Amino acid sequence: MFAGIIDKSRNGGMASGVPGEVMGLWKIHSQLGKLPWPYFDENGNVKPVGSLIQLPELTKTLQAIADNPNCFYDGCLSKDTVADLTEEGGIITVEDLKNYQVKWTSPTMLALPGGYKLYSMPAPGSGPVLSYILSILAGYNMQPSDVATKEREIITYHRIIEAFKFAFAKRTEMGDEFFVDISQMVINMTSMEYGEMMRGLIDDSKTQPTSYYNAVTDNAGNSHLSVIDGQGSVVSITSAINTYFGSKVSELALCSTT
Questions:
Q1: Which of 76, 166, 221, 229 gives 20 to 30 Å between its CA and that of 99?
Q2: pLDDT tens, 95-135?
């Protein structure tokens, strides 16, 4: 699809996939939420005292989604989105948005020492990465005494950093499990035995060149949000737009609810 035009896989309309954030948030809210979907009222009561935020076009968009989240996929927002993407060379159609479906998946699980179990987000999220880090570090059986002296502290943080290097290098190989077979890689990354093997590659006396960790490509990173309320409910969301400023395409005019 991008043969000979690799830049279009990062910038412009063709770099944009079918947006899933609105429907994903709506599905989670529908099944697990307690607060009303249009959480912000017309007076902005949830904003800090004295704050001033004026984004009129975004306000219209969020109001439309608050009134009807499906308008993003089968309404005026979908038409505006497709029109803007088409103008930028995109190939997403109104039918693509209309047919979008949320997929529910099972979390990854790592059995930790002491009978604990770590459940986390499956690939292409970073749950396997977190599991991989902990599986490598588990064998060190870290205690408060490991940072009691400067010498022990240096070794301890060195081990943690090295575990992160191996884990985030492996992350560069992760893809969407619905399109790429990464089942064996995820099994390895959530295995205490595999973590033990990788722990044997950590040298307490030195670090290693980048090639030692077998990273495939660079990554531009994500934005993450974790929220815990007084009732023990937990929300963990990762938002990714691939590279800096995403595809560099933004909506010019979105529909109003008035």
A1: 221
A2: 999 999 988 889 999 999 889 999 998 888 889 999 999 99
> Domain spanning 108-213 has what CATH number?
1.10.246.130
Q: Using a CB cutoff of 8 Å and minimum separation of 24, what contacts does 229-238 make? A: 233/32, 235/28, 236/121, 238/121, 238/125, 238/126
How far is 186 from 191, CA to CA, in rounded Å?
9
For the chain, what is the mean pLDDT?
83
Question: What residues does each domain of the chain span?
Answer: 6-103, 108-213
The pLDDT, as a whole number, for residue 199 is 96
Q: What is the pLDDT of residues 129-161, one digit of tens each?
A: 999 999 999 999 999 999 999 999 999 999 999
Torsion of CA 140, 144, 147, 149, to 10 degrees: -120
Q: What pTM does this model have?
A: 0.61
196: CB partners within 8 A, 6+ apart: 135, 139
Predicted pLDDT at 191: 93
- The span from the CA of 182 to the CA of 189, in Å, is 11
